[in-house]
Specification:
- This protein is mainly β and about 120 residues long.
- The chain has no helices and 11 strands.
- The strands form 2 sheets. Strands 2, 4, 5, 6, 9, 10 and 11 form a 7-stranded mixed beta sheet that branches.
- The chain is globular and about 40 Å long.
- The mean pLDDT is about 95.
């Protein structure tokens, strides 16, 4: 199992970023997938989950209405569109396989929101 995140970077408050997670080594289409973030000095925070078919999604209250999770099962890729970014969104963002139990994580991609 391999999960590789990309798309992070530095952006000003109010800006947007799109994260991607390329999955390999397992049948991507049959797994729920999640995004989790960890800010400096804090524990991991669940951000969003998308069910296998992509039609059902869940979001943390802190990102609801600003972030959109999606997936392309043909490309084995998970996405997170992040709009209206705030300083408190600064964190290392991980994609993870699963929903309640996330048994594989990527290495993370850094998102920094700063003016």
């Amino acid at each position: 199992v391999q999960l590789v995140e990309s798309g992070g970077g530095m952006v000003q408050p109010g800006g947007s970023l799109r994260l991607s997670c390329a999955a390999s080594g397992f049948t991507f289409s049959i797994w729920d997938m999640s995004w989790v973030r960890q800010a400096p000095g804090k524990g991991p925070e669940w951000v969003s989950t998308i069910r296998t078919g992509g039609g059902v999604t869940y979001y943390a209250d802190s990102v609801k209405g600003r972030f959109t999770v999606s997936r392309d099962n043909a490309k084995n890729t998970l996405y997170l569109q992040m709009n209206s970014l705030k300083a408190e969104d600064t964190a290392l963002y991980y994609c993870a396989r699963g929903r309640r139990t996330m048994n594989y994580w990527g290495q993370g991609t850094q998102v920094t929101v700063s003016s």
